[in-house]
Specification:
By secondary structure, the protein is mostly helical. Helices cover about 60% and strands about 0% of the residues. Pfam families: DUF4518 (PF15008).
Length: about 100
């Protein structure tokens, strides 16, 4: 069972769709310790969400690049300076998910 809240799961799902298929499959291997084989990007996203310990842990993964988080926040109308560092984007994303977004 996922340790993520419903809002975090929804947000992670939307964010993960911005990753390349190769990055998704690599992230799935890392998060599941290669124990859960997947055949599609959709299966990879569901496995990543199910086996992630927390939203913060997932966002801090190397395969979840700064640019991906930045693009995700922009699609959610959360705007930060283009020069923001990854840790700032992670913090803002977690704040966004803990607020009443939609």
């Amino acid at each position: 069972m996922s340790a993520l809240s419903k809002k975090e799961s929804e947000g992670c799902r939307r964010l993960l769709t911005l990753l390349s298929v190769d990055d998704l499959l690599a992230l799935n291997d890392t998060v599941t310790n290669r124990l859960i084989p997947v055949a599609s990007s959709g299966e990879a996203i569901e496995a990543i969400i199910a086996y992630s310990q927390s939203a913060e842990e997932l966002l801090k993964r190397k395969k979840v690049h700064r640019d991906v988080i930045f693009k995700y926040l922009a699609t959610e109308n959360v705007f930060l300076p283009a020069t923001s560092e990854k840790h700032q984007l992670v913090k803002r994303t977690l704040e966004f998910w803990s607020s009443d977004f939609k």
